[in-house]
Amino acid sequence: MPISSKCYISGLFSAILLLTACDHTPPDHRAPVTLPVYTKGDARKGATIYKEACGQCHQLNAGLNKKGPQLMNIYGAPAAQLKDYTYSEGLAQSGWVWNAETLDPYIADAQKAMPNSKMLSDPMPDINERTDLIAYLSTLRAAAPVVENNKNNS
């Protein structure tokens, strides 16, 4: 299918959604982070590690889940919190809160830390890389997305 046809179909689909969705459900998001930034690692190095090791499966914007859930406001958040992502049963029932103590073993080897985890990444044995990555994740902070209510325009 030519790219112009794909763009036309995509645009048409978007227009239909906009016209039929008077009550827009905002993307699910986590509450703002309340824990202090994790300073035992280098967040700048962690950003590079994130792009190389995590970015293929995880986004940083509410409502944009890929193979894995988006990670904005992950630090200090309860595990398996987003309603617009399907988590493994074990993670959903874990009661974990994502902080350095839970992220470190999960990033080191998700399958070992949480058997039957949906995260199928390669283990990250280097403690310094994990510490830097956790430092970066702790900086991912954003307010809840704002969604306008168009009930009066329906």
Number of helices: 6
Number of strands: 0
Rounded radius of gyration (Å): 18 Å
Write down the overall geometry.
globular
- The helix-strand sequence is HHHHHH
Portion of residues in beta strands equals: under 5%
Profile the largest sheet. Answer: none
Outline the low-pLDDT stretches.
none
Helix content: 25-40%
Taking the alpha carbons of the first and last residues, their distance comes to 35 Å
User: Mean of residue pLDDT?
Assistant: 85
Structural class: mainly alpha
List keywords for this structure.
37% helix; 154 residues; mainly alpha
Question: Can you characterise this structure?
Answer:
It is a single chain. This protein has 154 residues and is mostly helical. 37% of the residues lie in helices and 0% in strands. The chain contains 6 helices and no strands. The protein has helices at residues 3-20, 43-53, 89-92, 100-108, 110-113, 127-137. The chain is globular. The model has no long low-confidence stretch (mean pLDDT 85).
Give the secondary structure arrangement, pairings included.
Blueprint: H1 3-20, H2 43-53, H3 89-92, H4 100-108, H5 110-113, H6 127-137
Offer a concise description of the structure:
The protein is mostly helical and 154 residues long. It is 37% helix and 0% strand.
